[in-house]
Amino acid sequence: MFADFLTRLIQPEPQRLPDPDARIALTALLVRVARADGSYDADEARRIDRVIAGRYGLGPQEATNLRAQAEQLESEAPDTVRFTRAIKDAVPYEAREGVIEALWDVVLADGVRDEEEDALLRLVSNLLGVNDRDSALARQRVEAARS
């Protein structure tokens, strides 16, 4: 279903993605991180829906539909390193920094921060070209919003 999209995304010199394509790629990255621990449940799916609804100004059904498409894209996407690097090359920095904040929101949804999740977020941040300081600030904003 997403073969052409993925082919365009992983080209050596990808073009900037139009907003709808960037949305689905970044949402697929949220899904990938949520699935990373081998447990992807309804609470995580709802958290992703809330994150993307707020980020993109979507209604509940639109958010659910975008997440469903992103789940399919994520299952067809290449390994995390290639997929994340492709997103970096195709999405402006400001959007990538915002997605790190969204990733922290999903990771911290269960109230537990473990070493695996920290390591994955460090890897993804690095691959997206978001420095450690900006990633830490994104995490702190998420933690403050939860308090």
From TrEMBL:
InterPro entries: DjlA_N (IPR007791), TerB-like (IPR029024)
Superkingdom: Bacteria
Pfam families assigned to the protein according to its UniProt record, in alphabetical order: TerB
Lineage per the UniProt record: Bacteria, Pseudomonadati, Pseudomonadota, Alphaproteobacteria, Rhodobacterales
Protein's recorded name: Tellurite resistance protein TerB
SUPFAM superfamilies from the UniProt entry: TerB-like
Co-chaperone DjlA N-terminal domain span: 23-140
The organism of origin for this protein: Aquimixticola soesokkakensis
